[in-house]
Amino acid sequence: MKPSLIVHGGAWDIPDEAVNACNEGCRRALAAGWNILASGGSALDAIQAAVMVLEDDPVFDAGYGSHLNLDGKVECDAIVMEGATLRAGAAAGLHRIKNPIRLARKILESSPHMMLVGEGAERFAKDSGLALCKPEELVSEAEWRAYLRCKKDKHAAIHHRGHDQGTVGAVALDEQGRLFAATSTGGTCCKLPGRVGDSPLIGCGCYADSEAGAVSCTGYGEAIMKIVMAKTAVDFLRHDSRSGENALAVAQTAADHAVKLLLQRGKGTGGLILLDRRGLPAFSFNTPRMAYGYVNPDGLFVTSV
Ligand code: ASP
Q: Using CA positions, which residue lies closest to atom 4 of ligand 1?
């Protein structure tokens, strides 16, 4: 199979001054993932590597530099899903995990469950050998300043460099046909402590089925949950029987239809990336901008904001 990789850094009103950093972040994420895939490595390793780059980059809302909740704390969620088995590993409400995608993977690989939250998730992380960090190590200066502005004034997107969202995600297919999707987020800014959005929920923020395709979503979580957007997009892929030269159009139509439904029925904004089961990429969004990147058939990195 020809490997394939697509990543995103969130669908939101990305201000002009953040465009370069978002493009650069997506490029570095592609490089980390593609290094693995191009040398015959696994899709799971590739999406972990790509998502970790995005989590570590404070321009995105995941891991370090995530938006703060109403208590001024980072509270992260993440998921990874395997297309062959339909198994997922997901974690939510994390305060002390530097790279939530690593914990999601541990849950996928070595827990009998598919989702752990809060203190129990962090205990599982520790027992599995993942180091816990101090909650304040995840707080970037920019987000702390935004939080203080929101406390003084009323919460407003403008206090957060013009954005309310900025989740990250990746979808990869490897040489052996293994298909994985992952999503990682700090959620929405000034959310109520304990709020969980679409991102770590199987079928909402992420879905993978080797028989159809795999998806990672971003956007207004409460709306994405209403239409179970990732699974909806995968089902659009499953039920469109056009093949051959039309396969790329099928992938794009599935992405567009899911995002259209997000607006029509969910009354919300956002976007998604996907690979169909053969690795054909597509993306769609109804926000002013989305940060994304993929590797084209010649092995060149394409990124855009
Ligand atoms: N979907 C995320 C959430 O609602 C936010 C985002 O995509 O930026 O938690």
A: 221
